[in-house]
Amino acid sequence: MKRDCPTIQELLAFDAVLRYQSVTQAAQALCITASAVSKQLAGLEAFVGVPLLQKSGRGLTPTREGLAYWHPVADGLRRIETATFALRSGQAGSGVLTLASVPTFLTTWLVPRLLDLRRQHPGITLSFVRHLSAGESLAPGVDAAIRYGTGDWPGVVSDYIAGHEFVLVASPGLLAASPIHEPGQLAGHTLLHHEEAEGAWRRWATQHGASHLPLLSGPRFAQYSALIQAACSGLGAALVPRVLVEDDLARGALCMPCGGPVAIDQGHYLCYAPERIEQPVFRTFREWILAAAHV
């Protein structure tokens, strides 16, 4: 019985063009010629009977029907890839996972722990793509995202990993020049802010009886990596998630001059569609990362 579906080559070409929004780049990713990609796209559109792509400048974008079709296609291709990987490796819970992650958490927390993941679960392969912007949803083909925020993104399950505990940090050089032995002495220093943690300084100051500080002044940063580097360089004092500066504190690049940690209602979360938990390889990864966060 003939199956009423396109060929795998046509679907792979369609998925690649949507991901790269370019026939040329899709061809390079698939290791075929651009004309071969165009032929596969033409065959797919002829099969489904509706236009799936439209020209946009020098590239291609999906039509409304094309975008709706791409979501299940991309997810199906990812499931085929994962099932094939698991079958070839001969290990249960094996496969490829595609993750989007905020960059600072990825480089300072997750990457140093990937060796442990490989030791415990050698059949899991991770593929990382760019992190999601504030209002962006999980893209087709992305299994999960590690996001920073309050954990209330619509349409996904959000499991807290780490990051609620914020600490005051500054560089040894800054503290040698102008010590901070008690919270009130911050009045003579530049306060460094993360633009998505606007209430952090206010909560810390309230907890430590220093509400008189100029809490709204000072540079703002979109990435914690830049904020932490600014603190390491002596630009000012910063409030940051402790989980992101543990190595800097251990090697002496940063110090905690005064005051205790403060709990902020923001952190790093593993976000995924509810049905993703049914995928054995993802379930294994989820259990590992949540356990690693509580060691």
Automatic annotation (TrEMBL):
Any one GO molecular-function label of the UniProt entry: DNA-binding transcription factor activity
Domain HTH lysR-type, residue spans: 6-63
Key words of the record: DNA-binding, Transcription, Transcription regulation
Domain of life: Bacteria
Gene3D superfamilies per record: Periplasmic binding protein-like II, Winged helix-like DNA-binding domain superfamily/Winged helix DNA-binding domain
Family per record: Belongs to the LysR transcriptional regulatory family.
Name used for this protein in its record: Glycine cleavage system transcriptional activator
Organism field: Paracidovorax wautersii
Gene, per the UniProt record: gcvA_5
